[in-house]
Design goal:
single chain; 270 residues; 5-stranded antiparallel β-sheet; 10 helices; 5 strands; elongated
């Protein structure tokens, strides 16, 4: 799949909490790991550093993973705009946990097992709680506003949890709750957390909301149109399969002895 058809990861500055710090057990390697789409992502450079292998070796393993059909490229690769040291922005390919694990098996790296365990723990925490605690970033000086953002997420989760607990308690006590009761109690929870409560229809008009919805839907349709159809994907897979067959060496030809009939013993019949 061409690079411009790959899904894109959020820009680096979009959400700082989408980056987790990973440090190997020996302390020699520290990586900033992307967290998006309920999986983790590393670039080619990151994987080379993680597995302590040359980039060409990692690249070859990734190419073989796709050529052998172990993984589908369009499902495990994404682009992300990254600003390099020269100040220019480049599109960098990122590979998800499935690729990282496969490469780890192929390079026989114990680091791959360590990373898989760490990533699985972080993902489980993120999926269950809605956020992942980055202990390394909290320990590091100058962590920016990560801690403030983490506290805000925890508060949001607590508000939802308390609201649901209240509803469960009302049900256990057999107390009927009407919509006006739920609205009033939700306002109470928001006031308790010092949140602003919307008391008017809002500042966005109906027409503006519709225009926004149509614009976003047009973007979605354009994104779908850029994706290959099922027939195109199957055709590409068939082409790749043919290329793979062409790369396989042809079996050696078997030589057969020519049979010219029974040989004469040299003796004459009596």
């Amino acid at each position: 799949m061409p690079n411009d058809e790959m899904p894109n990861l959020p820009a680096r500055a979009a959400t700082p909490s989408e980056f987790l710090l990973y440090q190997t057990e020996d302390g020699r390697t520290r990586l900033e790991v992307r967290l998006a789409g309920e999986t983790v992502w590393l670039s080619l450079n990151d994987m080379a550093a993680l597995f302590q292998r040359d980039k060409s070796v990692i690249s070859r393993h990734i190419r073989n993973i796709f050529d052998e059909g172990e993984l589908r490229r369009e499902s495990v690769v994404a682009n992300s705009a990254t600003t390099a040291a020269d100040g220019k922005t480049y599109q960098v390919e990122y590979f998800n946990l499935d690729v990282i694990i496969s490469v780890g098996y192929r390079v026989h790296s114990h680091r791959g097992t360590q990373f898989r365990i760490w990533a699985t723990q972080r993902l489980r925490e993120y999926i269950i709680k809605g956020f992942a605690l980055d202990d390394e970033r909290l320990k590091r000086a100058g962590g920016g506003n990560y801690f403030d953002e983490l506290l805000a997420r925890i508060r949001d989760n607590r508000i939802v949890s308390l609201y649901l607990d209240y509803g469960e308690l009302q049900a256990l006590n057999r107390r009927p709750m009407y919509m006006r009761d739920w609205v009033a109690k939700l306002d109470d929870f928001l006031r308790l957390s010092e949140r602003d409560i919307l008391t008017h229809p809002g500042t966005v008009s109906h027409e503006a909301a519709l225009a926004k919805a149509h614009t976003e839907y047009d973007k979605f349709r354009a994104l779908l149109a850029a994706q290959p159809s099922t027939v195109e994907r199957h055709f590409k897979e068939a082409i790749e399969h043919v290329k793979q067959l062409e790369r396989c060496p042809a079996p050696p030809k078997r030589t057969t002895r020519q049979d010219n009939g029974p040989k004469s013993s040299g003796r004459k019949a009596q």
